[in-house]
Amino acid sequence: MPATEPTRPRLRVVRGLPDDAELAAVVAALLVVSAAGPSSPVPARSAWAAPGARRDAPRTAGPDAWRLSGLPL
């Protein structure tokens, strides 16, 4: 059986002396965060909530001009 190289720990305590319960809590929290996967992207803001739809912003022609024309002034 070949000898395996020792692996570096993925978690290292830099300062303090945590007990077993504290280390278990940190490991559990990291597992939950890593299992959740990447965060979902921020949904696109609708034209109704866009800052350009404010009253003081001038209306301009463009691909969504017909949609923006229904906004109140």
Automatic annotation (TrEMBL):
Region (Disordered), start-end ranges: 37-73
GO MF assignments: acetyl-CoA carboxylase activity; propionyl-CoA carboxylase activity
Name of the protein in question: Acyl-CoA carboxylase epsilon subunit
Domain of life: Bacteria
Organism: Amycolatopsis tolypomycina
InterPro entries xref list: ACC_epsilon (IPR032716)
